[in-house]
């Protein structure tokens, strides 16, 4: 195990000691999770959930969403913001899944080799590596590591990834750095740290449980 891998494991252990074993919000079926994650782009969890619930209230099935007038879908998901983009995007994904699979389901991804399952998801416009990894990890129990803005920022400050690495490059890099069994808790706990302590503009380093493991924290304390 490299020194960096050891530090990554220490980060996981320290965050678990601080926050405990985290739990993802109510797990959704994979197709629901895919739509929910598309809705989550560039908005907060509250607006995502409002839009998702409104969409499900307006249309009883995903087939109904797929076949509805685009304007009706846009109206339902307006709370999530960027509805004019997200509405057509969701419908196009649903149509492409139907065209390729003959039905609206993603459960087959559970048995597909992980690399193939990831590649299958990211071929859709609007489905990036983070969205694919969220569906794989939280809905299908596959070992994928989603990297959102908090995880990208925090791992950069700690020194767990190269400073100039892109978000896209960070997904496979961090998957190789953390043990697969830690993906679920470390993803959620780093996000919590990023929201509550290691914020973008003014990180509260004096109260951070990772300060002694963090390149940024050590730098500002000297």
Characterise this structure:
The protein is mainly α and 222 residues long. The protein folds into two domains: 3-23 and 146-220, Helix-hairpin-Helix base-excision DNA repair enzymes (C-terminal) (Endonuclease Iii, domain 2); 30-139, Endonuclease III, domain 1, CATH 1.10.340. 61% of the residues lie in helices and 0% in strands. The protein is built from twelve helices and no strands. The protein has helices at residues 3-19, 30-40, 45-58, 62-67, 70-76, 83-101, 114-122, 129-139, 149-158, 167-177, 183-196, 215-220. The radius of gyration is 19 Å and the shape is globular. The two termini are 29 Å apart. The relative contact order is 0.14.
Could you write a compact summary of the structure shown?
With 222 residues, this protein is mostly helical.
- What's the CATH first level of the largest domain? Mainly Alpha
CATH architectural category of the largest domain:
Orthogonal Bundle
Structural class: mainly alpha
Radius of gyration: 19 Å
CATH structural fold name of the largest domain = Endonuclease III, domain 1
CATH superfamily of the largest domain: Hypothetical protein, domain 2
Q: Tell me what portion of residues adopts beta-strand conformation.
A: under 5%
Number of domains: 2
| Discrete helix count | 12
Low-confidence stretches: none
> How does the overall form come out from the CA principal axes?
globular
Helix percent band: 55-70%
Mean pLDDT: 94
- Cα-to-Cα separation, first versus last residue: 29 Å
- Strand tally is 0
How would you sum up the major sheet? none
The helix/strand series, from N terminus to C terminus, equals HHHHHHHHHHHH
């Amino acid at each position: 195990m490299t020194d960096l891998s050891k530090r990554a494991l220490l980060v996981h252990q320290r965050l678990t000691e601080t926050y405990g074993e985290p739990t993802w919000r109510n797990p959704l079926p994979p197709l629901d999770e895919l739509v929910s994650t598309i809705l989550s782009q560039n908005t907060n969890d509250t607006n995502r959930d409002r839009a998702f619930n409104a969409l499900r209230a307006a249309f009883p099935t995903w087939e109904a969403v797929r076949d509805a007038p685009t304007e009706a879908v846009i109206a339902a998901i307006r709370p999530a913001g960027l509805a004019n983009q997200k509405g057509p995007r969701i419908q196009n994904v649903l149509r492409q899944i139907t065209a390729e699979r003959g039905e609206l389901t993603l459960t087959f991804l559970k048995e597909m080799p992980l690399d193939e399952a990831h590649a299958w998801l990211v071929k859709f416009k609007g489905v990036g590596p983070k969205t694919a990894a969220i569906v794989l990890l939280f809905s299908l129990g596959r070992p994928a590591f989603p990297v959102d803005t908090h995880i990208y920022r925090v791992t950069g400050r700690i020194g767990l990834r190269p400073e100039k690495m892109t978000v896209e490059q960070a997904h496979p890099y961090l998957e190789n750095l953390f043990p697969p069994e830690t993906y679920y808790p470390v993803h959620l706990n780093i996000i919590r740290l990023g929201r509550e302590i290691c914020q973008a503009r003014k990180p509260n380093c004096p109260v951070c449980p990772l300060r002694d493991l963090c390149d940024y924290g050590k730098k500002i304390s000297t």
